[in-house]
Amino acid sequence: METLAVSRDLKRKKRNYREKNMKPAKNGDTVKIHYTGRLQDGTVFDSSSDREPLKFNIGSGQVIAGFEEAVTGMVAGEKKTTQIPCDKAYGERNPSMVMVVEREHVPSEIAPEVGQRLQVGSPNGELLAVTVIDVNEENITLDANPPLAGEDLTFEIELVEIV
User: Fold this and answer.
1) If both were cysteines, with which of 34, 59, 107, 146 could 27 make a disulfide (CB 3.0 to 4.6 Å apart)?
2) What is the tens place of the pLDDT at every residue in 69-91?
């Protein structure tokens, strides 16, 4: 008699898991996904292949808008490749986000190099992530645009689970 109860409980759990994971992902769902992101030239800029799946809540703004849109409607186990234009990724590059700073305003312990990522204080006290894009004797040019701004992106996505 006890074996029958355990068997029914196991069947119920399997059915609930199957039902939950055969429904398409929708706004408000928490999902786990594996992904590989590529630039237009095929260069991989990020991948979850050697780590735990990325977990996020659809509609929360935790990931770029185009990525949320791509995952919405997928079912667990589904794989797809999607193109995300820059306006649904990190936006266009904004020239006003590039600034030239006189070297005398840079702390002496910092030896800036092109490509280096730094954090600088903004006028309102927030920390701003910047990339050094030029260095000369008098000035350092900093770019506060996101590194992938202006880029159309391609993602290979696998929806692992709807949590």
Assistant:
1) 59
2) 999 999 999 999 999 999 999 99
